[in-house]
Amino acid sequence: MNGSGPVPRRRVTQADVARAAKVSRTTASFVLTGRTDMRISADVQRRVQRVAAALGYRPNLAATGLRMSRTHTFGLLSDTIATSPFAGELIHGSSDAALQHDRLLFVAESEGDSEVEARLFEAMIDRRVDGLVYATMFTREVTIPAHAADHPLVLLNCFVRSGSLPSVIPDERAAGHEAARTLLGAGHYDRVVLLGEPAPRVFAGRERVGGIKAELKSAGTRLAGNVRCTWSSHDAYDSLLRFLRENPAPTALICLNDRIALGAYQALSTVGLRVPEQVSVLSFDDSVIAPWLVPELTTIALPHYAMGHRAVELLATGALEPGAVRVPMPLRDRTSVAAPRERSDSSRAR
Amino acid sequence: MNGSGPVPRRRVTQADVARAAKVSRTTASFVLTGRTDMRISADVQRRVQRVAAALGYRPNLAATGLRMSRTHTFGLLSDTIATSPFAGELIHGSSDAALQHDRLLFVAESEGDSEVEARLFEAMIDRRVDGLVYATMFTREVTIPAHAADHPLVLLNCFVRSGSLPSVIPDERAAGHEAARTLLGAGHYDRVVLLGEPAPRVFAGRERVGGIKAELKSAGTRLAGNVRCTWSSHDAYDSLLRFLRENPAPTALICLNDRIALGAYQALSTVGLRVPEQVSVLSFDDSVIAPWLVPELTTIALPHYAMGHRAVELLATGALEPGAVRVPMPLRDRTSVAAPRERSDSSRAR
DNA sequence: GGCCAGTGCTGACTCGTGTTAGCACCGCCC
DNA sequence: GGGCGGTGCTAACACGAGTCAGCACTGGCC
Which residue, A89, A122, A132, B43, is the most exposed by fewest CB within 10 angstroms? Predict the structure, then answer.
C-alpha cells in the first residue's frame, strides 16, 4: 500500500478554506476580505472565519498583487555610500513606517552609478511596487529620470529644483538658529568661533551657517572668528591648532559637523584647553561618535530616522503634494556646552 | 466627439506583444522565456523579439511569481539596533549580491522584538520570497522559530548551537592571530598590553582574545598586561589612565574594539604619550571613526559587506549546506602602529 | 493515394485571488 | 397560484504569465 507519507505541505489557499467551510470560493473571498455589501449570513461568516483561522489561512499576496495591482510594497532606492553610518537610520525609519502601514520595503543601493540605478528602478517597477522613495545620503539637489513620474515617488533627503515632487529634508536652517540660541542661552556672547566654513556649496553647510549668523545678528552680536577647513577631522585639527596659536581662545566653538568636532577635541587637548570648562563645543549631525567622546558631545542631530519614517508615511497615506517637508533637527544636549567661566571685558550680562 | 485623450498608459503585456507580432500568446511566451525545446522557426523568433523590444515589453513579475512560485526576491530580516553603523554595510553587501543575481531584497528590522520579528517574517512569506536571511548586529547564538525551517534560510552574523543551519560569521579567531602577528612583526614582543577583556561572554571578545593569546604563546611570549574595562570609550579612558599611573608604559596596546581605542587615544594624550612614536595602538572593527582619529587607527575590520554579500550569494546559488562559513577579517593598516623606539631590557632581537 | 514522421504553431488549462451578474429559494400579496 | 421583492449564495470571468496536449500542414515512401 502506498503510504501517504509526509505531505509536501502545500500552503492553504482560499479554496481550501471554502471547501472545508462548505461554501463557494466566492463566499469565502467575500468574508475574508470583509466586504459587507454582499449579503452573507452571520452564521456563514462565523463558520468561514473559524475555518480560516483553524487552517492558518494567509492570503497569497502575489495573487492579490496580480489581481488588484497593489502589492503592499514600496521600493527604497538610495545612492548610499557604504561608509555612511546614516544609511542605517534612514532605512530603519522607513522600515518602521512601512511596518506600521502593513507594507514591506525593497531596499537597494546604486552607489551613484546611474546605470545601476536604472536597473534597480526597473526591477522594482517590474515587481509592481506601489510607490518609490528615492534617497540620497547627503542633502542635495537631484534630477529624476522622466519615466519615474509615472509612479508615486517621494524624495528623501534630496529635492528637485522645480520643487514639483514631494520631498523630505532636514530643517538645517532652523538647526543653525538652534545652535546659536543654545550658546547664547548658556551665556556665550561675543567669543564664539565657527569651525568648518565654507562647506563647498553643500546644502547643509550653507543653511547651518545662515541660521547661525542670522540668530547671532538678531541677538545683536556676531561670530568672533571663522576658521576655515574641510569637513575632515584631520584638517579641522590642523586648522584649529594654527588658529589657537595666533588668537585668543574662544569661549565656545561651533563645529559644522561631528567629524570636525573630533578634530577640535584633539586640538584643544593638545594645547591643554579643557572641554567644557574652558571651551564649549557644539556640533551638528549626532553621528555615532558624539556620545563616545570625553566629554560627550552636544550636537544637533540629523533626523534620519524621522525623515525615513515620514517619507514612507507620505507614500502610504497618499499625501503626495509637491514641495519639501522640513523635518526638525533635535538638539542632543550632552556635556560639551557649559557657561563661560571668565567673562571677556567686552561681554555684558544678559 | 469623445476625444481619445491621454491613454492611461497600461503596461504592455505579453498578449500585446503576441497580437502585434501576429502569433499566439503561447508562442510569444515560448520565445520570450527563451525555451528551445518547443519548435519555433527562427523567423518568428526574431519577429517576436523585435516587437517585444519595440513595445518595451517587461514581464510582470507579480504574474510569473504567482505562476512559478518563484518571485526572484529575498527577505533580509535583522535585529539591528538603529545606532549601529554596521547595518548599512551588511545591507549594502546583501543588496549588491542580490543585484548580481537579479534579485531584489526586502529589508526589515525587528529591533529585537520577537513579536515584530514574527510579523515581518509572515509578511515576507506572504509575499512568497524565495529565501530569507536572518541577520544580527552583533555576532551571537540565536534560536530560530521552528516554522522557519520550511523556507531556505541563511543566518548572517549569527548561528544556532546545533550548527544545523547555513550561517555566515566573521573569523574573529583568525583576526586575533593577525593582531598579535602584526605587532610581533613590528617588533613588539613583551610589552604588549590588552585593553578591554573580559567581554562578558561575547563571541567577538572571546575569539579575539583567544587568537591573540594563542599567537603570542606560539611566539614564545605573552601579554604584559590585561586592563579590564567595558567596551565603552569612557570606561576605557578611565581604566587605561589608572593603569598608566601605576605601571610602566607599554610599547603597544591591543584594544578590543575601536570605541575602546578612542578612549585609549584620549587617555594617552592626557598623560602625554604619543601614538605611534611611544605607544602603538591596534584595534578591531574598523568603525567609521578609525580613519578620523589622529593618527589614523590601524584596525582589523569586521567584514560586514563581504558577509552580507556571501549570505545572499548562498541563497541565490542554493548552496545551503549546514554549518558556518567564516569570512576573513582584513587588516586596515593605517598609521597607529610603528616599531617600538626603545627596547625593554628583557626583549630580545628576533 | 493513404500512411507515417516530422515541423511549427495554438487552444485550453493553471497559479490564487477579487468581482460582476445572476440563480434559487422564500414568503407575501392580490 | 402566479408574480414580486428580498435574501443568500454561486458560476464565471479577469489579472498576466507558463505549459501540456494536440491540431494542421508538409513531404516522403510503398
Answer: B43
Is-contact A128 A96, C-beta < 8 A?
A: no
Cα B107 to Cα B150: distance, rounded to the nearest angstrom: 20
Residues B126, A60: C-beta atoms closer than 8 Å: yes
Query: Which bases of strand D sit closer than 7 A to a protein CB?
Result: 7-12, 14-21
Chain A residues with beta carbon closer than 8 angstroms to that of B308: none
| A25 CA to D12 C1' distance (Å) | 12
b/e per residue A108-146 (b: at least 16 CB within 10 A): bbbeeeeebbeebbebbbbbbbbbbbbbbbebeebeeee
* Interchain proximity A107–B109, CB inside 8 Å: no
Q: Which of A88, A150, A292 sits opposite B88 (nearest CB)?
A: A88
The string of DSSP letters for B17-76 reads HHHHHTS-HHHHHHHHTT--SS---HHHHHHHHHHHHHHT----HHHHHHHHS--SEEEE
Q: How many helices (H) and strands (E) does chain A have?
A: 11, 12
- Which residues on chain B are in Cβ contact (under 8 Å) with A66? 60, 62-63, 66
> Residue B207 in contact with residue B172, Cβ under 8 Å?
yes
- B174 CA to C30 C1' in angstroms comes to 98
Chain A (122-161) residues lying within 8 Å, Cβ to Cβ, of chain B: 122-128, 150
Q: How far is CA B187 from CA A268, B173, B251, B347, in A?
A: 32, 22, 10, 10
d(CA A211, CA A228): 18
